[in-house]
Amino acid sequence: MKRIVAIAVLLLATATACSKQEDVTLRIGDQKGTGLQALLQASGQLKDVPYKISWSQFTSGPPIMEAINAGSVDLGAVGNSPPVFAAAAGSKIAIIGVAEKGLTGQAIVVPANSAIQSPADLKGKKIAVAKGSSANFHLLAVLQKAGLSFSDISPQYLQPPDALAALSTGSIDAWAIWDPYTAQAQEQVKARILVDGTGYANGFEFQIAGTAALGEKSEAIGDYIRRIRLAHEWANTHPAEWAAVYAKLTGLPPSVVTVALNRNRFTDINLDSATIARQQLVADAFSGAGLIPHAVKIADIVDGRFNR
Question: pTM of the entire structure?
Answer without folding.
Answer: 0.90
